[in-house]
Amino acid sequence: MVLRIFNTASGREERFEPVNEGLVNIYTCGPTTYDYAHVGHARTYIFYDAMKRYLVHLGYRVRHVQNFTDMDEKIMRRAIELDMDPFDLSAKFIGEFLKDMDFLDVERADIYPKTTQHIDDCIALAEGLIRKGVAYETRGDVYFDASKTKSFGRLIHEDLDDVVADPLEETAFQNPGRRGMLDFAIWKSAKEWEVSWNSPWGRGRPGWHTECAIMAHKYLGPVMDIHGGGMDLIFPHHEAEAVLSEAFSGKKSVKYWVHNQFVTFGGEKMSKSKGNLVTARRAIELVGPDAVRLYLLSTHHRKRVDFSLDELDLTRQNLMLLQRTFARALEGGRPSCKDAAPKVVRGCISRFFSAMDSDFDTSRAIRAMEDLSRVLEKRRVQGGCRATVKRAVLDFQKILGIDLGV
């Protein structure tokens, strides 16, 4: 089998061929740090962790960058509510996020750049795009002129006539100098109460899309292999980020766009704004990190997970069964059992890796692993077959990041 990845840009699975042989550069959009991570966040970062682990299993070196949006309007408003310094608030929740990811055995990114560390870079990008004639300044705001690109909309595959790039300005122009409804802010002039920085256009801060375009380009170069994030980031964030990067460098910025679906709760997307969330920390307290990983990886990343506490607990019980079965099988199993057929064992193992080669399909991989467990519940493995099972289960553990009792 050859690894294939579903590319949001093309709408189909494509053979994976990295830009540089043997090296995979990945950028994932990190959280806006004003509260604790919820289960929806956990799903995103657990999936990309499994992706990284599988790429390493295949022999690639992986360079991973994940940003923190450590200053924006949500952070500033929350800081006002809590009577905190917004920088202190953001720093606190960066720390809490990393704690949660460590609990979940999500391997650390190589670099965690922050928005506030790249203000000068964002200003330089805006200045460069103005010089190129693809951006313009008006009343302290700098906008990207979407009429200057033909590639806007590549990820959503939709007619953009009725689409608005900036959801904060859907009903009317907040700035009368803004030329088109698809134009989006590269630099935003500051309100009196906002944290801001000096720029050639007055006090302000980078637009959300600007910061990711800058950080991805700075740490991974003009062309990266994989850019990942949740489905909600496809438009406008990733569309805008792509046209910014390409207007700046003149190169197609991403080979493979990868997006995971939401976690829903009661039929609605789990989110802080809706108040329908379960924190990652609470889920870990209820069933442990390995069961949380197994639960969230048991659904294909492009399908929604409708979160259920009952299903989460059933996953915990299933994990305990898997651990007991694998441990017993590798200790020799019950002497009354018949020997397992090596062909059946190898078939289950092969299906695990075939699933991972097909767009990192952890759901089918886990089903193959469970099928192997059912074989081992009724059969004994000996000699070479036992060694094969042990190697496979150790690989499953490493790739999924789940303790299988071996």
Can you walk through the features of this model?
The chain is an alpha/beta fold and 406 residues long. It has a domain at 308-400: Up-down Bundle (Four Helix Bundle (Hemerythrin (Met), subunit A)). The protein contains twelve helices and 15 strands. It has helices at residues 39-57, 73-82, 86-103, 119-132, 208-220, 234-249, 280-287, 289-297, 309-331, 342-357, 362-378, 383-400, and strands spanning 4-7, 12-15, 23-28, 61-66, 135-138, 141-144, 184-189, 204-206, 224-230, 254-260, 263-265, 268-269, 305-306, 338-339, 379-380. The strands form five sheets. Strands 4-3-9-10 form a four-stranded parallel sheet, sandwiched between helices. Strand 11 (263-265) and strand 12 form a beta hairpin. The two termini are 27 Å apart.
